[in-house]
């Protein structure tokens, strides 16, 4: 499959690289890693990166394209196969559509080619493999976002999605001359304001009878600290992680862009994906999410997770 898709790259002069909305580091990393590698290998091709941006973006600017470009392009969608995660991407107009993803979801969009590896730590790791199989050099500019994508989705190589292949990919990327200390500083050094927000968050999350931790971040909380929804939603969910008594935790955040509520599920060992799927979401077995429209639905999610833990405990 990788060789067939490489031939498509050769055959197409126009290439569009997209990924899911509200991008995390893996979405950014796989997108810009593929972009910079292809730009070096094929400098005369028209290659576009599209999508929304947030506070995690330290990789580059995005292109504005129209449907005419899509209809004449090879289009990559990375790090998702769910249509609800592609708002604003007119992928249906693509001349040829390729999916590359490592999540558990089955695609609900029509595609032409699909590289799927649910055992991969990240889509960034999959992109590294794709480039290496096709002998496409990974320069330092491409290596940095790919490395950051792997680090982001493995929690600095601490999650159980890490395999020997993950370390081999990371080692190959470091061979390009990356400054790992500078990368970690850019990812994890934060302001005093953020430390105080995290302290507030950590001091106010709640716990159910079966030790499911949860936090509801409403519009007032966002306005109090003048901070965006994505930073709170994905950025703070793991403030509830690493606590011996808490096996499952979930973060609910009002989304100022859509007026919906972003839901991020995490678990140390218990699969929670089916609960996310029940509410239209998806992701990994123990790290997934969804979006709902009312706070009442978040209460239903809390109850579902609490029952799941209760059943697990017998």
Describe the fold and architecture.
The protein is an alpha/beta fold and 314 residues long. It has 2 domains: 186 residues, inorganic pyrophosphatase (n-terminal core), CATH 3.90.1640.10; 121 residues, Diaminopimelate Epimerase, Chain A, domain 1. Helix content is 41%, strand content 18%. It is built from 12 helices and 11 strands. A 6-stranded mixed sheet has the order 6-7-8-9-11-10, with helices on both faces. A 5-stranded parallel sheet has the order 2-1-3-4-5. The N and C termini lie far apart (44 Å).
From the 3D structure, determine the CATH topology of the largest domain. inorganic pyrophosphatase (n-terminal core)
SS elements, strand count: 11
The CATH homologous superfamily of the largest domain is named inorganic pyrophosphatase (n-terminal core)
Number of helices: 12
Strand adjacency order, main sheet: 6-7-8-9-11-10
C-alpha termini separation: 44 Å
The ordered string of helix (H) and strand (E) elements is HEHEHEEEHHHHHEEHHEEHEEH
Average pLDDT, to the nearest integer?
A: 94
CATH classification, class level of the largest domain: Alpha Beta
Largest sheet: 6 strands, mixed
